[in-house]
Design goal:
The chain has 281 residues and is α/β, with parallel strands linked by helices. It has two domains: 205 residues, TIM Barrel (Alpha-Beta Barrel), CATH 3.20.20; 61 residues, Orthogonal Bundle (DNA polymerase, domain 1). Helices cover 38% and strands 15% of the residues. The chain has ten helices and eight strands. Strands 1, 2, 3, 4, 5, 6, 7 and 8 form an eight-stranded mixed beta sheet that branches. Helix 5 packs across helix 6. It is globular and about 55 Å long. 46% of the residues are buried.
Length: 281
């Protein structure tokens, strides 16, 4: 079985890529996709520590935003890591995250939370992708909250007065970029309503037309009813149904391998890429 959505400390996870590989091997996964936010930074370390018999699917979770301002995350897998248009988009989204964080910190300061950008950046690994979880860790270090969960519940959720969106291309634009790089595009946790506003089922028509390959159906943040609805959507548009943990180490409750994708469904995905790019030990 494959876990197609995991994070390391190359973005907002707490495990190094090597630690992530070791844990995946320990729980018996046949393979994982390393999908850090808007970066490829952890790939080399993950490949260097791949355990015998395991497969590594290289990828990234790319930030998107619909034209009416709804945040969407797109998993790009099995693409050419040298594709310049895709690399340029990842770089632009990462750069924009810094200015966005500065504005969020300023809003927190105005509300009496004495915290600095230096406090936030101290939580970030070298060359890692900056995100709200790092701000949550800084708030924990300053003893404003006790956990990431409390930080997001009280201060950092999408409907908070402190929330500021960051630059993101549309889902359709990202799908085309991933496909142009020879990879496959899977929309991550599309009905995770606790994260903020969610897309409608009608939104899938445009994404399917752009080349969407799969939808993350089995995810901790989806109810059984939502999973059934997404399964129907997948059948309607003939796209692959996946399951994944969205593992972040100690940063979230999600357990590595708690939801997985079958070998058969992964092979369907792999067949949609323009080359076989799975790394095998």
């Amino acid at each position: 079985m494959f876990d197609l959505h995991t994070h390391s400390n190359a973005s907002d996870g707490t495990d190094s890529p090597a630690e992530l590989i070791n844990k995946a091997h320990a729980v018996g996964l046949a393979g994982i996709a390393l999908t850090d936010h808007d970066t490829l930074h952890g790939w080399t370390e993950a490949m260097d520590h791949l355990r015998p018999g395991m497969s590594l699917i290289l990828g990234s979770e790319i930030s998107c935003q619909t034209t009416d301002g709804i945040s969407v995350h797109m998993l790009g897998l099995l693409f050419d890591a040298q594709n310049q248009p895709l690399l340029d988009t990842l770089a632009k989204t990462r750069e924009n995250r810094i200015g966005r964080m500065e504005r969020i910190v300023a809003r927190l300061n105005e509300a009496g939370y004495e915290i600095t950008m230096q406090d936030v950046l101290a939580q970030l690994s070298d060359d890692g992708t900056l995100g709200r979880p790092h701000l949550a860790d800084a708030l924990i270090a300053k003893k404003f909250v006790a956990s990431r969960e409390e930080a997001f519940e009280k201060l950092l959720h999408n409907d908070s007065k402190f929330y500021i969106p960051h630059y993101s291309p549309t889902p359709e634009e990202v799908i085309k970029l991933i496909k142009g790089a020879g990879g496959v595009a899977i929309i991550a946790h599309p009905f995770a309503s606790l994260r903020g506003r969610i897309i409608s089922t009608e939104s899938f028509a445009g994404m399917a037309e752009a080349g969407l390959d799969g939808v993350e159906v089995s995810h901790r943040d989806h109810t059984l009813e939502q999973r059934a609805l997404l399964s129907d959507v997948a059948k309607q548009y003939d796209i692959v149904q996946t399951g994944a943990s969205d593992y972040h180490g100690n940063g979230k409750l999600n357990l590595l391998g708690e939801f997985t994708t079958s070998q058969q469904d992964f092979e369907r995905l792999e067949a949609r890429a323009d080359q076989r790019r799975v790394v095998r030990a």
